[in-house]
Design goal:
five-stranded parallel sheet, 12 helices, about 10% strand, alpha/beta
């Protein structure tokens, strides 16, 4: 996709995104425009396997996607991430891969995102970097809204909405130990790390997602 002379947008769905998209037009639009949407949650993986009878569907997290893509000789930009996470992530990843080049690193604080002129200038700087990939980590749905705006004005390149992946790459937020992932309990580690942010989201999104899956299964009967 990075070689094509047209832009692309990538999202990584989980059950919370499915719940949030019903009331957020920007998030829904990002999913409608996305060229590639690998599932970033085991419930989504299992639902897709159940509804499609395709067993080969695998989980691809935004964090894994960022690391893997930054092993390639590409020009990448980072937008978002708390504090100095974007700068730290860029420096770390360039040390691992000397062929990786950085387009721009933008913290994108809230005041810059809220002020129309500053937001426009931010978008212009990112577009002018002519990056192969732009990683946007602002949380849902802010990252998808900005991702769509970038997608609409870019001539080429890929915008990937990656959530906390920039902070994971920087080391400013610790990812769950590997055994959590193998046991499919990464969500529990995230919840214990950020209970205020995630508890309500998980409580509301799980029943909604189960209802959607049940409705789709009923249609297939």
């Amino acid at each position: 996709m990075t070689n094509e002379q047209r832009p692309h947008i990538v999202v990584t769905p989980n059950i919370a995104h499915v719940w949030q998209a019903k009331d957020n037009p920007a998030l829904a639009q990002a999913y409608q425009l996305s060229n590639f949407s690998p599932p970033d949650g085991w419930p989504v993986v299992e639902a897709l396997r159940l509804l499609s009878d395709v067993e080969e569907i695998e989980r691809v997290t935004g964090a894994d996607l960022l690391i893997k893509l930054c092993e390639l000789p590409l020009v990448v930009s980072f937008v978002g991430g708390r504090a100095d996470s974007a700068e730290l992530a860029a420096a770390r990843l360039c040390r691992r891969n000397p062929q990786l080049r950085i387009g721009v690193v933008e913290k994108a604080p809230n005041d810059e995102l809220m002020e129309a002129e500053l937001r426009t200038a931010l978008i212009r700087r990112v577009v002018e970097s002519d990056s192969d990939i732009v990683f946007v980590g602002l949380g849902v749905p802010k990252q998808e809204q900005l991702g769509v705006e970038l997608f609409q004005v870019m001539d080429r390149g890929v915008v990937i909405c990656v959530g906390a992946a920039i902070e994971f790459a920087a080391g400013t937020l610790q990812r769950a130990p590997e055994w959590y992932a193998k046991a499919r309990l990464e969500w529990l580690h995230r919840l214990s790390s950020e209970p205020r942010k995630l508890a309500r989201r998980y409580i509301l999104s799980a029943p909604y997602f189960l209802r959607i899956v049940a409705q789709e299964m009923y249609k297939l009967r």
